[in-house]
Design a protein that fits this description.
Blueprint: E1 13-22, E2 51-60, E3 68-70, E4 85-91, E5 111-118, E6 122-124
Antiparallel strand pairs: 1-2, 3-6, 4-5
């Protein structure tokens, strides 16, 4: 028997995509996830280094809801690990007279750009 208007069966698909990237890559709110690959970092002994874990929650067929994700990072005993979340700031226009392809995020501005780093290991997607 078909469901009545008040009892419709809604199919909702939720997926969290993750990827690794260099700390030199800027991820805008509309950036697409990077392809899955191995991230190789060349660092000297006792040198500070950084990398990013990108996360994107996609929802189809439903209303997005906040989700909390926490990160726990472990390394060798003598390592000091710091987890930070990237924040976004509004940018109304380009500051330079640049042409497409010459400026990072050219197609994302006006909009929000990644800038501040917050000492947080919890995010809401």
């Amino acid at each position: 028997m078909p469901a009545s208007d008040g009892e419709k069966n809604h199919s909702v698909s939720r997926t969290i995509k993750s990827w690794l990237a260099s700390s030199l890559v800027r991820h805008y709110p509309n950036s697409r996830p990077l392809p899955v690959r191995v991230l190789r970092l060349q660092i000297a002994r006792n040198e500070f280094f950084s990398f990013q874990v990108g996360l994107r929650w996609t929802v189809s067929g439903g209303v997005p809801r906040p989700v909390e994700i926490s990160a726990t990072v472990e390394g060798p005993v003598d390592w000091s690990v710091r987890v930070r979340r990237v924040g976004y700031v509004p940018m109304r226009h380009h500051n330079l007279a640049a042409t497409p392809g010459e400026s990072d995020g050219f197609d994302q501005i006006p909009g929000f750009v990644p800038d501040p780093l917050f000492d947080e290991n919890r995010i809401a997607l």
